[in-house]
Structure formats: C-alpha cells, structure tokens
Write a structure and sequence with these properties.
Layout (H helix, E strand, L loop, with lengths): L6 E4 L3 H12 L4 E4 L3 H9 L7 E4 L2 H6 L6 E4 L5 H10 L8 E4 L5 H13 L3 E8 L1 H7 L2 E6 L4 H11 L2 E2 L5 E2 L5 E2 L2 H30 L4 H11 L7 H9 L24 H12 L4 H14 L1 H8 L17 H34 L5 H7 L11 H10 L10 H24 L4 H14 L5 H12 L16 H4 L6
Parallel strand pairs: 1-2, 1-4, 2-3, 4-5, 5-6, 7-10
Antiparallel strand pairs: 6-7, 8-9
Helix pairs in contact: 1-6, 1-7, 8-11, 8-12, 8-14, 9-10, 11-12, 12-18, 14-17, 14-18, 15-16
Length: 484
C-alpha cells in the first residue's frame, strides 16, 4: 500500500480545492474526495497533477489513505449536509481521529456536533475560514474551536496554511479560539462586522459621489489615499480598484452598470438575531442587513421614487464648502463609525463568551483578523494592543486611543450626517454609529419615561435613583385629570 496521507479533505468546490492545494504546498500529502467523483478525477488530472495528492472515490477509501490519528476536513454546504457526511464518516473512523468543519456553519450546530462526536470517542473542530478563494489558496484567516485535544493535532497544518502578519511576516492568523462552537461564533461576528464595513464604505461613496460630485477617477484617487492611512484595509483596497474597471464597451465604468440590489448569505442576520437574544445593541450589523434588504426592494423603490418627495441634491442649497475638507470629513466619519462597528462586535463576543462559558482571548481574535480575512485592516493592531493591555475592557470606545480618535472625528462626523440629511441622502450606518456613540456617552437616557409607560399600562414596575427596590405606581389615580 502506498504511503498514507497527512490530511483528508472532502468537498472540491473552489474553496475546498484551494485549501487542499494550500495544505499540499506546505509539505503535506492530501487525500481528497468529492460526492461527484468525476470532480476528483478532474482535480487530480488538473490542478493537482504532479503534486502529493491521492484521489479517492469513496469515503472508506479516503479514510484508509490517512495516517492516524486521521484529520478529515469537510468543505461542504452548511447544515444537513454536514450531519449526513458525519454519519457516513463515523463507521470508518477510530477513537482519537479528528473531524473538521471548515464551512460557514451556525455556531449552535457546532456546539451540538462537538458533544456528539466526543461521545463517539472522536474529536471535532468547527473552524471559521475567511479570505475567499484567494485566501484559501494563499493564506486565510482561520478561527478554530471545538475539542481542545484536537488543536495540537492540527495546529502545525493550520498555522502553516494561514495568512502571516508581523514585522517578520511570521505570525499566523490562526489560533485556538475556544471550546465547542466558539470558532464559528467568532467567524459569524467577523462576517457581521464585514456587513457594517461594507455598508459604511458604500455610504462614504454615496456622499463623495452625490454630495461632492466626484468622478470614478477621483474616487479611485481618494480611496487610494485613504488606503495609505488609518483606513488601510482590504475592503478599502478593493473598493479603490473597483472604481478603475471599465465595462466591455471600454467607455463606461462597470460599477455604474451594476444593479443596486444587494444579496446576503445569512451570517449577518444570525449575528443580529443572536444580539437580540443576548440583549446587546449590535445595531450596526442589524442596520446593514436591513440596508441590503431595502436595496433588494428595487421595484418598490422605483415606484416610490415617483411618489415620495425629498430635497434634490443639486438644488438643495446645501454648500459642502471646500471639497478637500469635505472629503476629509467623510474619511473621519467613516473611521469613527468603523470603530463603533468593531466596538459593538466585541461587546457581543464578550456577552456570548459569558453566556456559553468560552474563555475568549480578544487580543488574539484581533490578530486572527489582521491578515487573510475580508475585514483585515491596519487598525486591528490597535484593537489587539487595547485588549492585551486591558483584557476586561468593557468597550473599545473607552480605550484611550479609540476615545481620542472618535473625539477628534466628532465634528466632521456630525457634519457629514447633517449634510446627508439636508440633501436627502440615506446614510443609515453613519447615523446609527453616531446615535450609538451619543447613547453610550450619556449618563442618562429617556428610558425613565419608557419604564413609567410600561408600569402605567402593564404594572411592570420600575427602579428608582434615590432608593433600592422595585416600585409600582397607580398612575391613573395619581394623574392630573385632563380638561373636558
């Protein structure tokens, strides 16, 4: 029998293929299987030709071709397909073997599966993988969680294939996150922050294009400059590139010909729903999800545009002042809003860690996102520094660096929101981020009235500022009688 392989991978769609090629390129031999076995043959005779791969036509064959303890990564559609594949694998595997789910799975499924697999004597990992197709091939961000005993078995492989950061480009963007579904939860929050980042960038684009009248060439130059400073990130970089791409006619720009109706795959919605369950205000991912939903109502918006009125941008009478200063104001508003988005994401992670007893390291999580993933950005170094210095930091906005950054940006931030309102330009995320910031910084909010209302109509009781305990008032008997 030929020498057995170091690693097994099931599911040869583009992400699976690229991850398999990445693993092999780091010196490991890989056995691969796909439900449609023709895909296996195509891969072995194509991209994998001449490399250390073994193509398998059955799950049993794949398992037999792996060294023990076996490590099998599943790159299949999340949900029922994973459960079905696990049941197919279990009869062929042995105690101590490791099953790995590398898909975008709902964290509760990973919680359930970890317990189930461990009861069978095996080990389980649910790992977030971010970076898209290119990241999978060249170095993704990886967020593994599950059976802690499995980590030493896969750590050399995972950290070898992950993106690298640091002065010497030798720090892997892959570290153990926590037990059970922690890895997939962190990946979900990554995706939720990604939703917010993308919507914020779209709103910056809207302000620069509609309010400042920038051309695509000018937008390219602005985003290129932004990518050399505080906003340096993958999303700013690709946005810059998008503005330079011409359509097939060679005259118009492709971005201007794309239908303004956004899609979504669900992870942003998951984060929003779970935030409600935890009682934490992850308002920015929620508004970003709603913004996509509203964009998808294209027909309704076209109809409404013929009926509903608002200020005309060009004839609104609003003067943005010096164009360069306005562009800088939009940049500052974008940066401050981005800080709020990440602050909300970390508050949710902290609440989830408490709820599920996950010992999350928030500084390490920032490092995982520093390279390879979609939200990779220079300022994640600042987040790591903040949590390394103060692991129990209540909110990123309270750290001196971020408190000073938002203070510095505040006037410009407010200017952009006011200008957008006067011009009738919807900046849902800019406005939401500012409202979150203003709510957080106020010692007193109008919720005292809300509690009085709840007690009036439902006897829900309230607490007082001046003495402890729960109180109820017969508001009807104590009210002032209105005039007849």
């Amino acid at each position: 029998m030929a020498e057995q392989c170091d690693f097994g991978l099931i599911g040869l769609a583009v992400m699976g293929e690229n991850l398999a090629l990445n693993v092999e390129s780091r010196g490991y031999s890989v056995a691969v299987f796909n439900r449609t076995t023709e895909k296996v043959d195509e891969f072995i005779n194509g991209r994998a030709k001449g490399k250390k791969f073994v193509g398998c036509h059955s799950i049993e064959e794949l398992v037999k071709n792996l060294k023990t303890p076996r490590k099998v990564m599943m790159m299949v559609k999340a949900g029922e397909a994973v459960d079905a594949l696990i049941e197919q694998l279990l009869p062929h595997m042995s105690p101590g073997d490791v099953l790995i789910d590398g898909g975008n799975e709902y964290y509760a499924n990973t919680e359930r599966r970890t317990k189930y697999i461990e009861e069978k004597g095996l080990l389980y990992i649910g790992t977030g993988v971010s970076g898209g197709e290119e990241g999978a091939l060249k170095g993704p961000s990886m967020m593994p969680g599950g059976s802690e005993k499995a980590w030493p078995l896969v750590k050399p492989i995972f950290q070898a294939i992950a993106a690298k950061v640091g002065p010497n480009n030798d720090i892997p963007c892959c570290e153990w996150v926590g037990p059970r579904g922690a890895g997939h939860y962190v990946k979900m929050v990554h995706n939720g922050i990604e939703y917010g980042d993308m919507q914020l960038i779209c709103e910056a684009y809207l302000m620069l294009k509609e309010a400042a009248g920038l051309t695509n060439d000018e937008l390219y130059d602005v985003f290129d400059e932004w990518n050399r400073g505080e906003l340096e990130s993958y999303l700013i970089e690709i946005t810059r590139d998008i503005f330079s791409v011409k359509d097939e006619d060679g005259k118009s720009y492709l971005v201007d010909n794309i239908l303004d109706s956004a899609g979504a795959k669900g992870t942003g919605k998951w984060m929003s729903q779970l935030a409600l369950d935890l009682g934490v205000p992850s308002t920015m991912v929620t508004e970003a999800v709603y913004a996509r939903a509203l964009s998808a109502m294209k027909k309704a918006r076209v109809n409404a545009s013929k009926v509903l009125s608002g200020p005309d941008v060009k004839s609104s009478g609003v003067n943005i002042g010096d164009k360069k200063q306005f562009i800088e104001a939009v940049r500052q508003a974008l940066y401050a809003s981005k800080i709020c988005s990440y602050a909300q994401g970390y508050v949710q992670l902290q609440a989830a860690a408490k709820e599920h007893d996950w010992p999350l390291n928030y500084g390490d999580i920032a490092l995982l996102w520093r390279g390879g993933c979609i939200i990779r950005a220079a300022f994640l170094e600042r987040i790591k520094e903040a949590f390394d210095a103060q692991p129990d930091l209540e909110n990123l906005l309270l750290h001196p660096y971020f408190a000073e950054a938002t203070k510095k940006a505040q006037a410009a931030w407010r200017q952009v929101v006011v200008t957008a309102t006067q011009m009738g330009l919807p900046v849902i995320e800019f406005s939401n981020a500012l409202a979150y910031y203003d709510s957080l910084r106020r010692e007193r909010l109008p919720a005292n009235l809300l509690q009085a209302q709840r007690d009036y109509f439902g006897a829900h009781t309230y607490e007082r500022l001046d003495k402890p305990g729960k109180f109820h008032t017969d508001w009807l008997s104590k009210r002032r009688t209105p005039k007849a």
